[in-house]
Specification:
The complex is a heterodimer of chains A (291) and B (132). Chain A contains six helices and six strands. Chain A is of the alpha/beta class. Chain A has two domains: 58 residues, Helix Hairpins; 215 residues, ATP synthase, F1 complex, gamma subunit (Pyruvate Kinase, Chain: A, domain 1, 3-Layer(aba) Sandwich), CATH 3.40.1380. A five-stranded mixed sheet of chain A has the order 3-2-1-4-5, sandwiched between helices. In chain A, helix 3 packs parallel to helix 4 and helix 5 crosses helix 6. The longest helix of chain A is centred in the C-terminal third of the chain and has 74 residues. Chain B has 132 residues and is of the alpha+beta class. Chain B is built from two helices and seven strands. In chain B, a hairpin with a 2-residue loop joins strand 6 and strand 7. The relative contact order of chain B is 0.17. Classes of the chains: A alpha/beta (291), B alpha+beta (132). The interface between A and B is medium-sized, with 30 and 23 residues. Strand 6 of chain A pairs parallel with strand 4 of chain B, so a sheet runs across the interface.
């Protein structure tokens, strides 16, 4: 059995760990609030952009000559996967969830005999993927230096994607990120951005008669690269809100577990102290009796 | 009331401006400047670098925009742009910095006509801002 001193030390160290996790939880809570606000503020832009694109792609008369970013390159051989993760750890299952989702997708692609290319955004994703997929990773991007998520970072990522698309280096592009639902739930998402999925187009109940200036295809070819930046930016915002939410609940759990551990150790400490006292008493009494 | 429509300017990060009492907006559209009044036909177009003028009951506002998309529909004008600055508050150092950067771009050889046009537009506008 551990001595009294050892128990005391353990209780102290668990307590100081608890202090750290508590502080991290509070920091995450404050950051979460900001990240959530940012995600909400960014929503109108991406929604409007989506609407305009939908209207435009409905208005396009001949789909044959549609820009490649919309229609795809006509092949389905090389898949590019962009995995968006965080730069910091200690955020529960946040990164592992994205990676799990992405890995499932990867093995599906490779089992179909298609080529796979990976771009990781955020250092944690690279750390987790490099062991298994090191030869597939074509680029790794990290925004450790930038404090806030800004649009320029998203534009940098989309520039890399678009440039390599124009060089015919891939046919289909999918991004992986965590969608923020609430503090406890974040849903890993796979979203195809090239070619643009027209599943949401559905049946166009109201066909708007827009006037286009310049022509539709010219607007589209200008708009589509912007849309990719917007989608990536949206994913980054959702991701940062998810990261903070996930960290907050992870740290909350850690704090609670530490509390339970302190309670248990304290009981053990008290019991062994009591046992020591009883033992000493017995020794004194039996010593007195033997005289 | 009857002559007013709604204007919304959104950035990727946030909603930049939202106004209900706008009477006229002058837009530096890609194929030439365009004035938008109430009951304009639904239109989608995009912007070239230039000055955006907003006329409303409360006065006239000017903004410098670099790029963006506009959509007018049901008397709501939405402008989506990643770079917009109010002319009153614009940072002089940003203007001169941006001007010299853009001039460097123009000196490159491998430009197509379209981007050359956009760049020279930008330079003209920036020059006119800094000379004021």
């Amino acid at each position: 059995m551990a001595s009294l001193d050892d128990l005391k030390k353990r209780i102290l160290s668990v307590k100081s760990t608890q202090k750290i996790t508590k502080a991290m939880k509070m920091v995450a809570a404050a950051k979460l609030k900001r990240a959530q606000e940012n995600a909400e503020k960014g929503r109108p832009y991406s929604e409007k952009m989506n609407n305009i694109i939908l209207n435009l792609s409905n208005g396009i008369s001949d789909k044959e000559n549609a820009p490649k970013l919309l229609a795809g390159s006509g092949n389905d051989k090389v898949h590019l996967c962009v995995v968006l993760t965080s730069d910091r750890g200690l955020c529960g299952g946040f990164n592992s969830n994205i990676i799990k989702k992405a890995k499932a997708h990867f093995s599906k692609i490779t089992s179909e005999g298609k080529n796979l290319k990976i771009i990781t955004v955020g250092s944690k994703g690279y750390d987790q993927l490099k062991r298994q997929y090191n030869d597939k990773i074509v680029n790794k991007i990290s925004f450790k230096e930038s404090k806030n998520i800004n649009f320029f970072d998203a534009e940098k990522v989309s520039k890399i994607i678009i440039e390599s698309f124009q060089k015919n280096e891939f046919d289909v592009c999918t991004i992986f990120y965590n969608k923020f639902k609430n503090v406890i739930t974040q849903i890993p998402q796979a979203q195809q951005i090239i070619p643009l999925k027209s599943s949401e187009t559905g049946n166009d109940n109201e066909k708007d008669n827009y006037e286009f200036e310049p022509e539709e295809d010219e607007i589209l070819s200008n708009l589509l690269p912007k849309n990719i930046s917007t989608q990536i930016f949206k994913a980054m915002l959702e991701n940062s809100a998810s990261e903070q939410g996930s960290r907050m609940s992870a740290m909350d759990n850690a704090t609670r577990n530490a509390g339970e551990m302190v309670d248990k150790l304290t009981i053990q400490y008290n019991r062994s102290r009591q046992a020591a006292i009883t033992k000493e008493l017995i020794e004194i009494i039996s010593g007195a009796e033997s005289l | 009331m009857s002559e007013e429509f709604k204007l919304e300017i959104v950035n990727p990060e946030k909603s930049f401006l939202s106004k209900e009492d706008v009477t006229e907006v002058l837009i530096p559209a890609y194929e030439g400047d365009m004035g938008i009044l109430k009951d304009h036909i639904s239109i989608i177009s995009f912007l070239k670098p230039g000055i955006l003028k907003v006329f409303s009951k409360s006065g006239e506002d000017k903004y410098y925009v670099e790029d963006g998309i506009i959509e007018f529909k049901d008397n709501t004008l939405s402008i989506l742009t990643s770079s917009i600055f109010s002319l009153d508050k614009i940072d002089r150092s940003y203007v001169s910095q941006s001007l010299s950067d853009t001039e460097k771009l123009l000196s490159k050889e491998d430009l197509d006509d379209q981007s050359r046009f956009l760049i020279s537009q930008k330079i003209d506008v920036l020059k006119s801002i800094s000379s004021n």
